């Protein structure tokens, strides 16, 4: 029986002691190890399976961590983590107190740059390479980036700069024709033509940017990859290696359905069959309420447009793309372009729903201010994954949107407390607003079992109106969005609930100032609740209102503290922030 290799490898130094002929066996063992753990613990599967040979080759050829390796996004870095002293803790991946699902500088010296959002690797590695030159250090600097990420503007900015330097930079394009969803755009078509040999070398766009281009080569032929990396080590200046891989390599079902197996949840490690979750009688996912509602609205209004930057499945924009492909656009990983494209369409009378995860809208902040709000164009921003998102951690929590949008003139900000509110605000926005609006809603399911969008009648929402959910005599709770349901549940379980009033402020901007005057005149203590950062958030807006109107009430703000929240389940993270039901029960019971 062949001796297992992976069990003896804890770091790249151990790896380099192997003979090259042993590496295919190690690749199989590494794939099996990833599949075994992720099948039970969940996580990002397909991307890491696709780069197993590349991962081994990089650590085999280069002197990591002295040579600096940067992974773009980091979905594909599981093999890297296992080979760099985290094999024994890999089972804690993405769990509270465990290792991060993405490369993270504070976690390991082998994680040279913290990632999670796409297209940063080339700029970061170039910065390292130039610094090494200035410090007189002889190091290699490698950026591994996918074909979806390299289409983003920031990646091209990095390539543009690198091409006029003599930096010791190697960019490796992991070309598998898919990010989370299939890659789109003219660059994808160009790369396909290169793979198929239809694009002559003299017309190579990467060579035109002054890179030493090589490839495409088979990224699963570990000997070919090692041979080319060894050659490139001797080449000076910026270099570019184009490799072809298959996302999900080694697990047949993951190769066949690469979208589903990007992060499949629990599955059978032998067959790959995904364990079906019992979903009968559950509330719908907010993203699906958005997607289904948008299709219904688009049927009635031919001017409705849908735009998403590379997340059609995750945002459920796919529903509209299937029904109205000429009016729904996946623009690739290009949030800045998505926002300004939406603005351009809005100038021509289109009703544009620009659907972007809250954490990714941060990447287009100038466009929100300059191209949308300054011109007061009524773009409808639908911010999926607002609030705490769970296991993806600090890079993906949508906790800053209230604070970074609230300070922008002309912006309306709304947070639905449930599925009905979401569909109604989408309807309200579709029939015409005078301002841009951001609608923020959480990851996961709502609270109404068996809720059916198509069986519900849409109702117009009055802009800037808040609502009393529960009367009280002593203290007023002002909540915004879905997190307000935690307050309602807590109030249902305490004995002194008659003393506590609860108001839903769906509109964070504009605030319902008439109601706020009544509240401040009626209650000495006011508690605000949000699933965003307390600094500059909804609670801050209430404090500002009190200050401007010279109210002296005691105000307590509840929300995300002024620190980055790590990974864990949403329930665990809410507990850390003291905005879970049990923490609220304890607080309210002491009033």
Describe this structure in words.
Strands 7-6-8-9-11-10-15 form a 7-stranded mixed beta sheet, sandwiched between helices. It has a 5-stranded parallel beta sheet with strand order 1-2-3-5-4, sandwiched between helices. Strands 12-14-13-16-17 form a 5-stranded mixed beta sheet, with helices on both faces. Strand 2 (141-146), helix 7 (153-162) and strand 3 form a beta-alpha-beta unit. It has 591 residues and is an alpha/beta fold. The chain contains 24 helices and 17 strands. The radius of gyration is 26 Å and the shape is globular. The longest helix is centred in the N-terminal third of the chain and has 19 residues, at 23-41. It starts with 11 loop residues before the first helix and ends with a helix. Helix 4 (52-61) runs parallel beside helix 10, helix 12 packs parallel to helix 19 (419-430) and helix 20 (484-491) packs across helix 24.
Poorly predicted ranges: none
**Spatial ordering of strands, largest sheet:** 7-6-8-9-11-10-15
Distance between the termini: 68 Å
Total DSSP E strands: 17
| Tally of alpha and pi helices | 24
Please state the overall shape, judged from the principal axes of the Cα atoms: globular
Rg, nearest Å = 26 Å
As a percent range, the share of helical residues equals 25-40%
Biggest sheet overview: 7 strands, mixed
Fraction of residues in β-strands? 15-25%
């Amino acid at each position: 029986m062949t001796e297992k290799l992976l069990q003896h490898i804890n770091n790249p130094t151990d790896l380099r002691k192997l003979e090259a002929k042993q590496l295919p066996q190690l690749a199989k063992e590494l794939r099996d190890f990833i599949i075994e753990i992720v099948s039970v613990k969940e996580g990002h599967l397909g991307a890491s399976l696709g780069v197993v040979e590349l991962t081994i080759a990089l650590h085999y050829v280069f002197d990591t961590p002295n040579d600096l390796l940067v992974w773009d996004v980091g979905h594909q870095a599981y093999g890297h983590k296992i080979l760099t002293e985290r094999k024994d803790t890999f089972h804690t991946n993405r769990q509270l107190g465990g290792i991060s699902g993405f490369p993270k500088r504070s976690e390991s010296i082998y994680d040279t740059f913290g990632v999670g959002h796409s297209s940063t690797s080339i700029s970061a590695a170039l910065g390292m390479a130039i610094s090494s030159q200035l410090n007189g250090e002889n190091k290699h600097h490698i950026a591994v980036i996918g074909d979806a990420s390299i289409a983003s503007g920031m990646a091209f900015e990095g390539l543009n700069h690198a091409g006029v330097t003599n930096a010791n930079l190697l960019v490796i394009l992991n070309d598998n024709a898919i990010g989370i969803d299939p890659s789109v755009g003219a660059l994808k078509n160009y790369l396909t033509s290169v793979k198929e040999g239809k694009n002559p070398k003299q017309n190579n766009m990467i060579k035109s940017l002054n890179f030493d281009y090589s490839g495409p080569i088979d990224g699963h032929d570990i000997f070919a990859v090692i041979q080319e990396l060894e050659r490139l080590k001797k080449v000076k200046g910026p270099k570019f290696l184009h490799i072809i891989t298959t996302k999900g390599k080694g697990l047949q079902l993951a190769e066949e359905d690469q979208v589903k197996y990007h992060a499949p949840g629990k599955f059978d490690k032998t067959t790959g069959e995904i364990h079906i979750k019992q979903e009968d009688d559950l509330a719908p996912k907010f993203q699906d309420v958005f997607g289904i509602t948008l299709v219904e609205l688009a049927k009635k209004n031919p001017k409705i447009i849908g735009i998403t930057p590379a997340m059609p499945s995750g945002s459920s924009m796919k529903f509209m793309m299937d029904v109205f492909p000429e009016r729904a656009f996946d623009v690739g990983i290009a949030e800045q372009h998505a926002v300004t494209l939406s603005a351009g369409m809005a100038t021509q009378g289109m009703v544009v729903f620009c659907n972007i995860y809250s954490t990714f809208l941060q990447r287009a902040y100038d466009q929100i201010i300059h191209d949308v709000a300054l011109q007061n164009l009524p773009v409808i921003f639908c911010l999926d994954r607002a609030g705490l998102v769970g296991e993806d951690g600090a890079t993906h929590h949508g906790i800053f949107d209230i604070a970074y949008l609230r300070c922008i003139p002309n912006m309306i900000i709304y947070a639905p407390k449930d599925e009905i509110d979401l569909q109604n605000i989408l309807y309200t926005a579709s029939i015409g607003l005078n301002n841009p609006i951001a609608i923020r809603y959480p990851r996961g399911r709502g609270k109404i079992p068996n809720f059916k969008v198509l069986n519900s009648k849409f109702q117009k929402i009055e802009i800037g109106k808040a609502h009393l959910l529960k009367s009280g005599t002593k203290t007023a709770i002002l909540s915004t969005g879905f997190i307000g349901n935690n307050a309602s549940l807590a109030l249902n379980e305490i004995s002194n609930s008659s003393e506590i009033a609860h108001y839903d402020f769906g509109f964070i901007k504009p605030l319902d100032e008439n109601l706020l005057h009544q509240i401040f005149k009626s209650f000495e203590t006011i508690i605000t609740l949000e699933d965003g950062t307390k600094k500059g958030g909804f609670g801050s807006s209430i404090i500002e209102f009190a200050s401007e109107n010279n109210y002296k009430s005691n105000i307590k703000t509840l929300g995300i503290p002024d620190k980055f929240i790590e990974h864990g389940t949403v329930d665990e993270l809410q507990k850390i922030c003291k905005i879970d039901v049990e923490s609220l029960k304890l607080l309210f019971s002491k009033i």
